[in-house]
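Why show two proteins at once? Because comparison is the fastest way to build intuition. When a single record is shown, students tend to memorize it. When two are placed side by side, the eye starts asking what differs. So, the first record is below.
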Amino acid sequence: MELIKDQSFGGERPLFGLQDTRLENVTITEGESGIKCCKNIEADGCRFIGKYPWWHVDGSIITNCHFEVGARSAIWYSNDMTMRDTVIDGPKLFREMKNLTLENVVINDADETFWGIDGLTVRNVRLHDGTYPFMHSNNIYVDHLESDSKYVFQYCKNVEVHHAHIVTKDSFWECENVVIYDSVIDGEYLAWHSKNVRLVNCHIAGEQPLCYVRDLVLENCTFDAACDRAFEDSYVTADIRGSITEIKNPISGHIVADEIGRITYDRFVRQPNNCIIETRK
């Protein structure tokens, strides 16, 4: 593998078509498309300053790097990538990719990040700010995620999450095949219009959670007091520890809780309207 070390490159496409190369302490300065249409590239201790620095790169490892604010839309159309121990300050990272792994990564502007990814593994990652990370991505595995970005996980399929703390709005909307373990999900309108959703040992906060869901399962979960009008128009099997403030108009299933503040049925409840709701004896 060729080595490029302690150099700076700027302007238009300075490293276009590079193959089988390791970059150490390299800076991609102002300009566009610094590394493009490349294959089998490693980057360690590098800085990325200009726009679109890493497009159409297949087979890459990025470690100990910094993508600055100006490196927006930095990594698109690049398959088979591993990134570790890296800080990202620019928005709109990671689009239309396959087989992406992140470990120990901080993304300080997660706006429109992880769009259209097929095969995403996230370990010990922090997302800050921005909207709609993970949209239209599939086959996702998450272990230890902290996020305060809005509208996370929209239109996703095959998602497994462990040890996450997510503060957001409208998360896991119109998703399919989602399982979440040992996590805190704090945000309004959790998982509306989703299918096949399972939460295990989770704490849920925010109003109107888990409505319009098909095949919803909760195991050993707790609810914040602000969680009113839960399960509206949902097919649900739920084991709730502690109390839940309000259950409203579930369609079918079985809900058990230690304490239920109120159960609301009105004229808009949908058939078959046969959900069993009971307090634990």
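Second record. Ask yourself what differs from the first in the token line.
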Amino acid sequence: MLDIKIIREQPDLVRSAIKAKRTDDILDDVLSFDGDRRAIISRVELLKNKRNTVSEEIARIKRKGEDADDVITEMKIVSDEITALDTALRGIEENLNGLLDSIPNITHPDIPHGEDASANKEVKRWVPRGDETLLEKKKGLDHLQVAEKYELFDFKRGAKIAAAGFPLYTGRGAALERALINFMLDEHSQHNGYTEVLPPLFVNAESLRGTGNLPKFRDQLYYMPEDELFAIPTAEVPVTNIYRDEILKAEDLPIKFCAFSACFRREAGSYGKDTRGFLRVHEFNKVELVKFSLPEDSYKEHEALTANAESILEKLEIPYRRMLLCDGDTGFSSAKQYDLEVWAPVEGNWLEASSCSNFEAFQARRANIRFKRDPKSKPEFIHTLNGSGVATSRLMVALLENHQQADGSIAIPAVLHKYLTFTSIA
């Protein structure tokens, strides 16, 4: 959520963010409600001052033994108006907050301008041993053919059990998935300074509102109305809400969490996109990175978080590129966002495997997460960051394709060997 002062003082800046992120322009309604709210607050303050004055007058009259009925009647009229205005104010603030929830974050001024992914900027590319030939499209088995040949995954039976987009991992495929998750958790918790947490897979509406998933992305969520709970689209949601409505100490920052979870997304509106196998699924696994930072340090922490996610891909020897997203492709809640795309040589495509975002105070204001610089200082909103460290679905595609040998076997990256009973799939 944006600070209402920014909306009030810089409406053109906010409108540019609304336009870039293709959300409804409701700014005039926001400013109208804000004006009504401030007018009522001003009127209530005047009336409360008057009520205090009248109360003192009543006490003075009574001390003299005089009749105070007329003054008491006047005070009742004032009190009744205050009550009515308080009721009106609650309604206006409810409407105003609902509108504020639908306004996107303002993007960082240094990011590219553009309408879609075509305006994103590649800022880094990495290939094992600097061998650019690894970025050529090559012949071989795609991940679905590999899965069928070696019985690693069963998408047809997954669809029978649940629905299309819910994969079933089998045999060495299940073991490889577990090895990837354990490797990533160990890397982030033992080497990159994150504290591991295992969060709930279901959250309430207030948690999703805090991260910006509600109300905008309601149609992407799986909802259980009997319990008023949602399946999480990412561990970012429960982990960010660990400190909702809390005040942290500046000396404890940054706080860094990593978390494994399954993620559930309806992928509404994905008609026409490539939905084969792991390219677009409704359930997938991911190791998430979340940071709580001092405002002045958040962009330094953003670079470090992104580098932590990149280190996973480098140790798995998977080519990737870092993309700086333009304002039209940056997420609703993000101020600045990098995507890490892995190269899939048989697919011949770059596949997004991680998004790393700095939300500045946008999520913290929604979730009321603050900090104090010292015990006597005024609370300030913290900056939150998160990134995939990384999602396993498209990572699995890239791993199987990049480590596929000429005979069709799959060489397992060395960093995974200690988690498995096999070093190749053949």
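One difference worth noting in the second protein: The longest strand covers residues 283-293.
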